[in-house]
Amino acid sequence: MRSAFGKRLEVTIYGESHGDRIGTVIKGFPAGFAPDMDRIYAFMERRAPGRDAFSTSRREPDIPKVASGIINGLTDGRPLEAYIENTNQHSSDYDKLRYTPRPSHADLPARMKYGDELDLRGGGHFSGRLTAPLCFAGALCLQFLAARGITVGGHIYSIAGVNDRPFDPVKVSKDDFDELLKRPFPVLDTKAGKQMQLEILGARSKLDSVGGVIEVAVLGLPMGLGTPLYGGIESMLAANLFGVPAVKGVEFGSGFSAALMKGSENNDPYCVTEDGKIRTLTNNAGGVLGAITTGMPLIVRTAIKPTPSIALPQQTVDLRSMTETELTITGRHDPCIVPRAVPVIEAMTAITVTDMILSEV
Question: Looking at the chain, which terminus has fewer C-beta neighbours within 10 angstroms, N or C?
Answer without folding.
Answer: C
